[in-house]
Amino acid sequence: MSKEIKDEGKVLLAQWLAPKRVGKLVRLGQDFDGGYLINSLDLASSKALVSMGIQEDWSFERDFSLAANVSVKSFDFSVGLISWLKCILRPALRRGKISETLRNFTKPWRFYRFFSGSNVFLRKKIGVGAGCVDLNTALGELEDVFLKIDIEGAEYDIFKQIIEFESRLTGIAMEVHGLPIQLEEFKSFCSALTEMKIIHVHPNTVSGLTPSGEAKVLEVTFSKHFDDAQIEHPLPHPLDMPNSVSTQNYQLVFE
Questions:
Q1: Helices 107-114 and 81-95 sit at what angle, rounded to 10 degrees?
Q2: Which of 179, 236, 235, 184 shows the shortest CA–CA distance to 207?
Q3: 4, 143, 181, 253: which has the highest count of C-beta atoms within 10 A?
Q4: What pLDDT shows up at residue 7?
Q5: Which of 41, 33, 53 is nearest to 147 (CA)?
Q6: Which CA distances in Å does 142 have to 47, 145, 174, 223?
Q7: What's the CA gap between 184 and 132, in Å, rounded?
Q8: Distance between CA atoms of 138 and 52, rounded to whole angstroms?
C-alpha cells in the first residue's frame, strides 16, 4: 500500500515496490506527462519497441526509436478522427490558447508521418477478448522487445502473457491503474516475474492520491539489468517530472 505522511510531505510505499539499483537511468519522452525513466542498458539491448496505449503523444516512441535505432509497433484503439479533433480544438475551447491549437493542427500529419515505413501504428484494442490484440499477437516474431504499456487498467488483462513471454522482453515501462484496490494483484504479477525487477517507480501526480493518501496510478519500470541491492538515492529521481505543470512530484519512502 501507499500512504502519504502528511506532516513530512512524503508518500509511503510498501517495501516490495522499492526499486533495484541500476547503472544509469535515462528519460525518454516529452516533459511532464508522457515521459518514462528506463535503464540505459535496456535501451542498448532492445531490437524493437512495442507500445500499447499512445493517444496523441508519441514522444516516448520517437525518443526510443532514435536512441536505440529500432522500429516501433504501436497499438491504440482510441486514436482516430474524434480524438484528433479534440486534440486540436481543446486548447482553444478550454483555455483560449489559439497558438497551441494552430500547433496541434499539424499533429495528425506528424503522427502518421512517424508511423510510416518501419514504424507501424494499428488502431486496435489491447486485451484478451473478442476483437482485441493480445501480447502474443502484438509481439509476433519479435525478440528483445522493450514494452511500453499505458492502457488505462487493461494491463491486468495481459499480466499472464507478460509472464509467459518475459524471456522475449528487455524491459517494461507501464502505468499501473486501479490502485490501491488492485495493488495485491499487481504484487502477485511482480512476484511471478523471474527475470525482471522494478528499477523505478513514480506516482502519477495528476491522478494524485486517495483521501487516505494512497497512490491511484504508479508509473513503474522493469529491467533485466539490475543489482540485487536497492537504490540508495531518494526518490523522486532528478530526471523525474510531475505529470503536469500545476502539480509537484511526491517524495517517496519505502518501508
A1: 140
A2: 179
A3: 4
A4: 37
A5: 53
A6: 8, 7, 19, 18
A7: 25
A8: 9
In the structure, what pLDDT confidence band is assigned to residue 94 with cuts at 50, 70 and 90? low
Strands 25-28 and 36-39: antiparallel
At 1 the pLDDT is: 55
Tens-digit pLDDT profile for residues 138-155: 999 999 999 999 999 999
**Collapsing DSSP states into helix, strand and coil, what is residue 40?**
helix
Q: Check whether 102 has a pLDDT greater than 80.
A: no
Q: How many other β-carbons are positioned within 10 Å of the β-carbon of residue 193?
A: 17
Q: What is the tens place of the pLDDT at every residue in 159-195?
A: 999 999 999 999 999 999 999 999 999 999 999 999 9
Question: Do the Cβ atoms of 210 and 227 come closer than 8 Å?
Answer: no
Cell of 96: 483560449
Strands (E), the chain: 2-5, 10-13, 20-21, 25-28, 36-39, 48-52, 71-75, 120-122, 125-126, 132-133, 145-149, 169-176, 197-203, 218-223, 227-230, 251-254
Contact 136, 50 (CB under 8 A): no
Taking the C-alpha atoms of residue 41 and residue 24, their distance in angstroms, rounded to an integer, is 8
pTM for the model stands at: 0.92
- Among 246, 254, 68, 211, CA closest to 146: 68
